[in-house]
Write a structure and sequence with these properties.
alpha/beta, Quinone Oxidoreductase, Chain A, domain 1, 6-stranded parallel beta sheet, 3-stranded antiparallel beta sheet, 11 strands
């Protein structure tokens, strides 16, 4: 966004120069720098039971899951949630958050070796989309029109299946948070109307600092304590020292990670 740093990185943890407290921060750029100036409203305390490097995996993943499942979709107890790309950092956060909220959760991955991670995060149904049609799998297990909320970073290729499994009666919500596999798709408007479905688009990075501050404040009130009680866990894949940052990006590019890849600056 205009006015934000060109340095990459949207989340971090560290020690506040102003207070000496250990904190996490959501930023719109600059998170990979050694020193970062972050808006005060986008800071929150690093959970005491986590080491500071692990805590860096909270802001983007869990705030993305929170703003979309809670604030946008209004996911509630006893509803059914479908999370695509479930082995990503956001995906694993969303699975955990869904279970914390009392939802039944299905999650997808295109890599069979990552199915165990979905189950470990709490997914009631883990689906390998490299071998199975996710809509067929959900219908076989839970019946037709079973899903209340879909969190979808895939985009166009999954829309038809999302609509197929979506609940009727105005309860179904699909939240698109990325278009990794394509942004253009045909939409069966008759089906949207029949199901009274809601298709939502959402981004976090482009929101104003005031909006982000409000999101962080609500997250602190409603969710942050769950890290202290171990109800939420940061899904860390690997930690790389900063001089090996290129290896971290290569691991992500090759889709070998399960959860968050973190880069650690040396501490004095």
């Amino acid at each position: 966004p205009p006015g934000e740093p060109d340095i990459i990185g949207l989340e971090l943890s560290g020690t506040s120069d102003a207070t000496g407290e250990t904190v996490c921060a959501l930023v719109a750029g600059g998170g990979h720098a050694e020193y970062v100036a972050a808006p005060a409203g986008q800071l929150f305390p690093a959970p005491a039971r986590l080491d500071l490097v692990t805590a860096a995996g909270i802001p983007e993943a869990f705030l993305t899951a929170f703003v979309n499942l809670v604030m946008e979709a209004g996911l509630s107890r006893s509803e059914t949630l479908l999370v695509h790309a479930g082995a990503s950092g956001v995906g694993l956060a969303a699975i955990q958050l869904g279970k914390l909220l009392g939802a039944r959760v299905a999650a997808t991955t295109r890599t069979s070796e990552k199915l165990a991670a979905l189950a470990s995060a709490g997914a009631d149904l883990a689906i390998d989309t490299g071998r199975h049609d996710f809509a067929e799998q959900i219908e076989e297990r839970w019946g037709r029109d079973a899903v209340d909320v879909v969190l979808d970073p895939i985009g166009a290729p999954s829309l038809a299946g999302d609509m197929r499994v979506l609940a009727t009666g105005g309860r179904g919500r699909v939240v698109f948070i990325s278009t990794m596999a394509g942004a253009r798709a045909e939409v069966d408007l008759a089906l949207v109307m029949r199901k009274r479905a809601r298709l939502l688009g959402s981004t976090l990075r482009a929101r104003s600092r005031a909006e982000k501050g409000a999101i962080v404040a609500r997250f602190k009130r409603e969710i942050l304590a769950a890290f202290a009680s171990d109800e939420l866990r940061v899904p860390v894949d690997t930690v790389f020292p900063v001089h090996r940052a290129a290896e971290a990006f290569q691991r992500m590019r090759e889709n070998r990670n399960v959860g968050k890849i973190l880069i650690a600056w040396p501490r004095d």
